[in-house]
Amino acid sequence: MIWLTLSAIAMAGTAVIHSVAGERRLLGPALASRTGVFARPQARGVFRGAWHLTSLFMALTAAVMVWPQTAWDLKALVAAVWLAIGLYSLVSTRGRHVGWPSLIFAGVTGLIGSLS
User: Fold this and answer.
1) Measuring CA to CA, how many Å separate 2 from each of 6, 8, 28?
2) What is the pTM of this model?
3) Where residue 29 falls among pLDDT bands split at 50, 70, 90?
4) Distances in whole angstroms, Cα of residue 79 to Cα of each of 39, 41, 64, 74, 98
5) Which residue ranges make up each domain of the chain?
6) Do the Cβ atoms of 7 and 113 come closer than 8 Å?
């Protein structure tokens, strides 16, 4: 169970950082530019909503990992997706995306916990 807890903590932490740091370092500046697609209020709202909805889904997956009634194969699937996203982030950005370590950590610990 410790592995699943570590995975959930990493997922929840990633969700918080994604929301807060993303708002400050990416969303705020991009939306403040009001250029291109961000010139439209609806586009700004949709982009901000989708960003934070992604963070909410990250938090939901953290709950899945520690929820006692969650099937072990679903936990393994969630962990595998986190691992795959982390590896993709690592490779596609050549290590420049700050999130890949926590994504990979959440996935690996989740897989260890769900398959042991």
Assistant:
1) 6, 10, 37
2) 0.92
3) very high
4) 38, 36, 10, 9, 19
5) 2-115
6) yes
Using CB atoms within 10 A of its CB, is residue 40 exposed (0-12), middle (13-18) or buried (19+)?
exposed
Report the distance separating Cα 66 and Cα 7, nearest Å: 9
Measure the CA angle with vertex 63, ends 97 and 53; round to 5°: 55
Tokens 């490779």 belong to 91
pLDDT digits (tens, 9 = 90+) for 52-97: 999 999 999 999 999 999 999 999 999 999 999 999 999 999 999 9
Residue 19 CA to residue 106 CA, distance in Å, equals 17
Q: Which two tokens stand for residue 61?
A: 């997956």
Structure tokens at 96: 């420049």
The Cα–Cα gap between 81 and 26 comes to 24
